[in-house]
Amino acid sequence: MTTLAAFKNFTSGLSEQETIMPVLFIGHGSPMNGIEDTEFSRRWTQMAKEIPTPKAVLVVSAHWFTKGTHITAMDFPKTIHDFGGFPQALFDVQYNAPGNPVLAKETADLLHSAHVELDHDWGLDHGTWTVVRHMYPEANIPVLQLSIDYTKGPQFHYDLAKELLALRKKGVLIIGSGNMVHNLRMVAWDKLNDTDYAYDWAMQMNSKFKELIAEGNHKALINYPGLGKEAMLAIPTPEHYLPLMYNIGLQTNKDEVSFFNDKAVGGSLTMTSVRFG
C-alpha cells in the first residue's frame, strides 16, 4: 500500500525547474483501453518514457462535468468506475496513486478567472485512470483532476487554461482527456476493432482539427460551430472536446506539436492525440 509518508517531498509544494513540461491531449476512447494491451495503450506507455518524469499529473477529464470549477484535493483519490456493461475485470481495477492537497490549493489560487472548489468526494474517473495507469503503472506520482464547468463555453476554458501555465514550469504534466471526434449515437459497433474505418465527415473533421492545431489557429478551434455541419456531427455534445481547450490554452510559441494514436474507431470516434512541447 502506498503511504502518504512516501510523498513528503510534495507537501511543501513544487518549485520551478529549468525545463517546461509538455502538455498532452489524449483521446481515451473505450474504458477497455485501461486494461487491454492495445496500440493505443502501448503508445501511452511509450509516451511516458519519452517525456520527463512529472512531479505530479493534472488531468482535465471529459467525465467530470460540473457546475462551477472543482479540483480534487484529497490525500488519496478513489478509483471511479463510471461506466456500465463492461467485464468485471475493469471494475476490479484500483489505481492507488496519491493526490496532493497542497498542489490542489496552489492550483486553485492560480485560477483567478473562476472560484475553484477543493473537492474531497470525486476521485479519478476513467478519463484519467485508464490512461495514467499505463503511463505510470507504479502509481507513485500524485494525480489530480480539474473539472469542466458545463455552464461555460470554450473561450472560458481556453482562458482559464492560460492561468495554469505556471504548473508546466513546476514539473506538472497536464493532460486533457477526451476525444476530438466523439459521436456515440453514430458508432458502428460492428467496426469497433477496425481502425481504418471512419465516416467521411469524421475523417474530414479530424484532419481539419489537426490542421488548425498545427497552425496554432486557436480562434477557429474555440469557435468550432463555425467549422460547419461536419463539426457539429463530430461534437454533438461538448464534454469530450472541451479538454482540448486546456491544451491549446497552455500552448506556447516554443512548443513543437506532434500527433499520435491518429486512428478512428467505430466510424464516428477518433483517438487522435497531441503532444505540445
From TrEMBL:
Q: Which UniProt keywords apply?
A: Dioxygenase, Metal-binding, Oxidoreductase, Zinc
* InterPro entries assigned: Extradiol_dOase_DODA (IPR014436), Xdiol_dOase_suB (IPR004183)
Q: Name one Pfam family in it.
A: LigB
Its required cofactor(s), as named, are: Zn(2+)
Q: Does the keyword Oxidoreductase apply?
A: yes
Q: What is this protein called?
A: 4,5-DOPA dioxygenase extradiol
What NCBIfam families does the annotation carry? PRK10628.1 (NF007914)
Organism in which the protein naturally occurs: Pelobium manganitolerans
Q: Which GO terms describe its molecular function?
A: ferrous iron binding; oxidoreductase activity, acting on single donors with incorporation of molecular oxygen, incorporation of two atoms of oxygen; zinc ion binding
**Domain Extradiol ring-cleavage dioxygenase class III enzyme subunit B, chain residue ranges per copy:** 37-234
Q: Which family does it belong to?
A: Belongs to the DODA-type extradiol aromatic ring-opening dioxygenase family.
